Amino acid sequence: MKKFLVLALVLCCIGFASAEGLEPLMAPGDLAVTAGVGYGFIWGAIDVSGGVEYMLGQFKIADTIPLTYGAAAKASYYGWSESGSSFSYLGGGAFGTLHLGLKDINLPDNLGFLENVDTYIGLGAGFYSYSWSGAGEFKIGLRTTGGAAYFINPKIAIVTEGGYYGYYSSGLLGILFKL
What's the total number of domains in the chain? Predict the structure, then answer.
């Protein structure tokens, strides 16, 4: 998660250094669906994650850097069984999100790949529920998410995301579709 926050900070600094040509990759009115697989940082399980997000509006910092904000719902599930024991986990939440995307900006040649990058962070409320061989737990609390999407074209992006839904953190590598 720290890496995502550092990347977002770096992109903000690049945005302040170049005041012209910034446009959001995720604009107000966009609806995005994300699906992917992740690595749950407990037991080494592979998890399945997904979500939806709707971009609600936009504001600018210093009248030059557009930030888009939205609302998202995300969830993650995994399960495994071994030697008579079984474990399953479901976590998710509703988030307020903030996006910074760089597009059509005069970047140095070695940073040209950033033109198609959208970074985001999210904060919200969520739940987790797990079951371990018959025993289980359900909790509600504060949840976080953050990541980066690399747009292959205006409607499809490759996404990497980190999230904390409670009990454990997960990472996601997936695909985003703008509808």
Answer: 1
pLDDT tens digits along 49-75: 889 999 999 988 877 778 899 999 998
Q: Tell me the pLDDT tens digit for each residue of 66-103.
A: 889 999 999 888 877 777 777 788 888 999 999 988 77
* Structural domain harbouring 173: 2-178
- Residue 119 sits in a domain whose CATH number is 2.40.160.20
Encode the chain in three state secondary structure.
Answer: CHHHHHHHHHHHHHHHHCCCCCCCCCCCCCEEEEEEEEEECCCCCEEEEEEEEEEEEEEEECCCEEEEEEEEEEEEEEEEEECCEEEEEEEEEEEEEEEEECCCCCCCHHHHHHHHEEEEEEEEEEEEEEEECCEEEEEEEEEEEEEEEEEEECCEEEEEEEEEEECEEEEEEEEEEEC
